[in-house]
Write a structure and sequence with these properties.
Keywords: Heme, Iron, Membrane, Metal-binding, Monooxygenase, Oxidoreductase, Transmembrane, Transmembrane helix. There is one protein chain. This protein has a single domain, classed as Cytochrome P450 (Cytochrome p450), CATH 1.10.630. The termini are far apart. The longest helix has 34 residues. The strands form 4 sheets. A 4-stranded mixed beta sheet has the order 1-2-7-4, sandwiched between helices. Strands 3-11-8 form a 3-stranded antiparallel beta sheet. With 510 residues, the protein is α+β, with helices and mostly antiparallel strands. The structure holds protoporphyrin IX containing FE (HEM). Protoporphyrin IX containing FE binds next to helix 14 and helix 19. The site of protoporphyrin IX containing FE has 24 residues, from helix 14 and helix 19.
């Protein structure tokens, strides 16, 4: 008995001693970070400056975008959001962080957020060094120019036709129109199109009225990837994460990857010349003047994810704001119907010249940024300057899109949906700082798919309002507020329903 109690006493004393050391270590670490760190002079809450934990909690809750926006409202345009991270809400920060300038190259991506998965080839997203990245860009550029878009137009028109035909069928079944979940229908269309452009075959979501399993997996894997990357701030507990991932998830990921490889290989073995992106990417197994086949396999998957999640979000968000702002919707509808007598007249080049449509999309890109948390970068060796502030190497930096696009310093009535602000004719918006919004990013890593995204958004939106009367649906999913959604790197969209009726005097297709 005495031996047992003395062993227990001894254990208790050691455990208490260890706990005290751990607590003291954390206190010293936090005090050092708050008061004696090179970034201590920057404003921000002490809790966020002390350790990464508060920042991680915010990521895990899906509220990092709004939490940091609120910090900017409270502390100003430059805020310390973690011991080693500064967030900027100034338009000039865009170019300082992301663009190349003489003697000031764009800040690199960090391994933590963009490292290559073990055993996987490099893709355009995780080509971290400048030379590899510019090799990817040079190889891919021919597939993403305005000229390439002219070749791709028949495919873009075909999938948009399929969307409109499918919706027309629903709407024509009842005199009261139909309530549709636009997240799904825009998703089916954009995934089928991007699948065709990047893999040479559609996912057949429109035909089957449901998401292909490969596509369905993307939604969950983006959230999982965000949570996994966030844990890499603490490499010592990274192994815990790997233990926590169920084997079935790893197996699914493998199948997902294999399917992408098979699809690319099938496309490469097809002799047929098709006007898709994949046929325009330059291949070179020596990786000098192009990308290798494994790199293409990895990059084709990136194109699918980067090109679909984003476009579907902006299209859905814009539709959400349009049905909530009937005057804007009426003006857009009138513009499209008076400009185009027939649906087939809506070519990509004609739609480029329609001013209010373009302004609606600009405003949609401002309010419905699919990545409102921003694009983290790291200050390179030797340090770097952002907005005149010299920052030590290894500091994480970010320009915060949500804080900028919703700032009253940048935009008049920043929460309102006012496409007019982009037309430069209404004096209420003359003080707006358009350059604060950079939804496609800036610099050498900015969005390569911007012309395609604009083309898709113009065509889908214009075709929708030409044929249908759009209205808020009186359902729970019809009342979703765009801002009331979580973000795990990208917006996690809730279902969003809209009531559609056939336009008066237009015969149904079906
Ligand atoms: C509204 C739609 C879109 C938005 C808002 C958007 C936004 C962005 C942003 C902000 C980046 C920069 C990421 C970074 O710097 O870390 C990016 C990169 C990229 N986007 Fe998009 N994107 C859209 C549509 C598309 C489409 C349609 C495609 C292709 C079909 C595409 C393909 C890519 C690729 C491949 C990259 C990586 C570029 C690089 O690393 O050099 N995106 N996009």
């Amino acid at each position: 008995m005495t031996l047992v109690s003395s062993v227990l006493e001894n254990f208790k004393a050691k455990a208490t001693g260890t706990l005290v050391i751990i607590v003291l270590y954390f206190v010293a670490y936090a005090v050092r970070n708050i008061y004696f760190h090179p970034l201590s002079k920057y404003p921000g809450p002490k809790l966020w400056a002390a350790t990464r934990f508060r920042y991680l909690l915010s990521i895990w809750s899906g509220n990092l975008h709004t939490d940091v926006q609120q910090l900017h409202q409270r502390y100003g345009e430059i805020v310390r959001v973690a011991p080693d991270e500064i967030s900027f809400a100034r338009p000039d920060a865009w170019h300082d962080v992301y663009s190349n300038a003489p003697g000031h190259p764009a800040f690199p991506k960090s391994k933590l957020w963009h490292g290559q998965a073990p055993g996987r080839p490099m893709s355009i997203l995780n080509a971290l060094d400048r030379n590899s990245h510019s090799r990817f860009r040079r190889a891919m550029e021919p597939g993403f120019t305005e000229r390439a878009l002219r070749f791709q137009e028949p495919l873009i028109q075909t999938y948009t036709d399929m969307l409109i035909t499918a919706l027309d069928k629903f709407v024509s079944q009842s005199s009261d129109g139909a309530v549709i979940n636009v997240v799904q229908w825009f998703g089916f269309t954009i995934f089928d199109l991007i699948g065709d452009l990047a893999f040479g075959e559609s996912f057949e979501c429109l035909g089957n009225s449901k998401f292909h399993p490969w596509v369905a997996l993307i939604f969950n894997s983006l959230k999982a990837a965000t949570l996994a990357a966030s844990l890499r701030y603490y490499p010592s507990i990274d192994w815990l994460l790997r233990l926590a991932i169920p084997k079935s998830v790893m197996q699914k990921q493998k199948e997902h990857w294999q399917l992408a490889v098979d699809k690319v290989n099938r496309r490469l073995n097809t002799e047929k010349e098709r006007p898709d992106i994949i046929s325009m990417i330059k291949l070179d197994e020596n990786r000098v003047d192009g990308i290798s086949i494994p790199e293409l396999q990895a990059t084709a998957s990136v194109i699918i994810v980067a090109g679909s999640e984003t476009t579907v979000s902006v299209l859905t968000g814009m539709t959400n704001y349009l049905v909530r702002n009937p005057k804007v919707l009426a003006r857009l509808t009138a513009e499209i119907r008076s400009t185009f007598k027939l649906e087939k007249d809506m070519s990509l080049s004609a739609l480029k010249e329609v001013p209010y449509l373009n302004a609606v999309i600009q405003e949609g890109l401002r309010l419905c940024n699919p990545t409102p948390v921003g694009l983290p970068r790291i200050v390179p060796p030797g340090g770097g300057t952002v907005c005149g502030h010299q920052l030590p190497e290894g500091t994480f930096v970010n320009v915060h899109p949500l804080a900028l696009s919703r700032s009253p310093e940048m935009f008049h009535d920043p929460h309102g949906f006012h496409p007019e602000r982009w037309l430069n004719i209404d004096p209420r918006f003359s003080g707006d700082k358009h350059e604060a919004v950079q939804t496609f990013g800036v610099g050498p890593r900015s969005c390569i798919g911007k012309p395609l995204a604009w083309a898709e958004m113009r065509l889908v939106l214009a075709r929708m309002v030409w044929r249908f009367e759009l209205q808020m649906a009186d359902t729970e999913a019809g009342r979703v507020e765009w801002d009331d959604q979580k973000v795990f790197s990208v917006v996690q969209r809730k279902p969003f329903e809209v009531r559609l009726n056939l336009r008066e005097g237009v015969p149904s297709i079906s």
